[in-house]
Amino acid sequence: MSYRTVAAACPHDCPDTCAIRVTVENDRAIRIQGDPDHPTTHGALCTKVSRYTERTYSPDRVLHPLKRVGAKGSGQFERVSWDEALADIAARLREIAARAPEAILPYSYAGTMGLLQGESMAMRFFHKLGASLLDRTICASAGGEALTATYGGKVGMHVEHFAESRLIVIWGSNSIASNLHFWTFANAARREGAKLVCIDPRKTETADKCHQHIALLPGTDGALALGLMRELIVNDWLDHDYIERHTEGWPALRERAMAWTPERTAETCGIAADEVRGLARDYGTTKPAAIRLNYGMQRVRGGGNAVRLIAILPCLTGAWRHRAGGLLLSSSGWFRADKAALQQPQLLAGRRPRTINMSTIGDDLLRDGSAAFGPKLEALVVYNSNPVAVAPESPKVVKGFRRDDLFTVVLEHFMTDTADHADYVLPATTQLEHLDVHTSYGHTYVLINEPAIAPVGEARPNTQIFRELAQRLGFDEACFRDDDEAIARQAFGATLDFGELREKRWIKLPLPEAPFADGGFPTASGRCMIDAPGHGVPDHVPNYESASSAPELARRYPLAMISPPARNFLNSSFVNVQSLRDIEGEPVLEIHADDAQVRGIEGGELVRVFNDRGEYWCKAVISKRARPGVVNGLGIWWRKLGARGTNVNELTHQRLTDLGRAPSFYDCLVDVSRG
Fold it and tell me: What's this model's pTM, rounded to 2 decimal places?
């Protein structure tokens, strides 16, 4: 028998970006394990990725090109050859592009976070074609724009240094489920006496392990941050020197924060005034104190302002002076990948296509052509995403995907909800079958992913599929002849030695241990921008759907709903892995006993969750994980696996956040009734 070990990296939308070792026996992957030598992975993988061979070798895997022969959504397809599929797809795109190239839209996100299989050859293809651009906002753009406005980039602490913190505030993150390796460092700090505080509307598995859980109402994080600021001010728990030298705009925010008494904050957030006072005391008097902020809390109308307010807190106390103090939301801004080399924007040749927001795809697929909108969308090429399941207000998304005059191509591993609506489904390789290079938004290492096995069946890498489409369309620029290794070498240009990366498997970025100990934020002034150009001074922005903003709506739909991912899924990925689905069981709605009692819900029965946009049927679970007035619709299940062919996004809306043009998934009022 022949054994070998191959260096890989987890491709999924998770801050951990784990280093992986793949054991291959006779050209078949037989074992996936975390690389014990990698400083943040330290040999451990989550339950999901540790079963990755189940994904690659699944009997449900799409292994050949498929052409639709039934109605859209019926899942009726026939096998065709690559030549037939690519020839027809190229002909259809050529015909549309000759009339209105912007009628073609790529739709992709983070099904892989790789620099190659994500947006390299794909973007070259769409730039040359002149297709509409996609605003990729569905997960993190509110927080990303907020952090950039405040700090100058998506930058923060080194995750390893949380192990040395004395207070860790885990804000909007179920780290045990979605950021496992951060949790390892937080747990190490706890063993050394650090206090851990979890801020989350849901009593998550992470909250169970923390010393304190503050269960605020969805969308009130900015109010809590302002209330904390007031307590820092009145008790003089401020680092005046740091504020003076390294921030800009504090007086205006100071005045605003003084209006947020503990009582006002508590009433807005649905918590106790003493919780505000106690957290402020802990944060203001404990050194070093660190905040692990995550993206759940920015999926509301005021998510961007809330992130800005929270990001300012460590500047007020001087927490950044310590390497174990400060804040981490994203580290992705530290990486200097050469986006232009990867995507070749000069192929646009002076054209300026419109931009379509992926979060409003439900509305945009149903729009007619107009002077304001541009041409009606006629073709959609979906890769690394499952919009029929994950995009908000899915009744409209489904209606758009079922248009008979919409030509849809989906690159996929499995027959997802979106693939069911395609005209062609093209089999894509999994992470074990292709080359890629990865950065991270949770640590500061560049990693390589070597192909461990040959493509299964007739699967091809995304890069190869778009390379071959370019050839069939007659695109003759040299960049379309770059193979994957050539693209990988272009990813960082001269700033990173690809040969060294291949040899070492990962390379740590050369960054200061305490990056902002003496200021030096990557803003124009080098200061934390409290009063940021184009954004002003941040404030609490209430939810679109709340008693304060929409009292009549709140009377009809008195429950706020959030839809965090189920522990064993990652967005809609892994839903089809049988062993993981067996653990989750079925779609559920967590509801507090008080809210269940007044509705006659006993638990375990099928319930109807509804609002003006639609209805969703799932099993009710009476649970202490739900606070009064808030229900938790765990997702994101594929629609076709739901009780009545829907999922939680039947209820969400397409209104966007204050910053970043992102969806407001957790800004959603509903009611619940017995089935």
Answer: 0.97
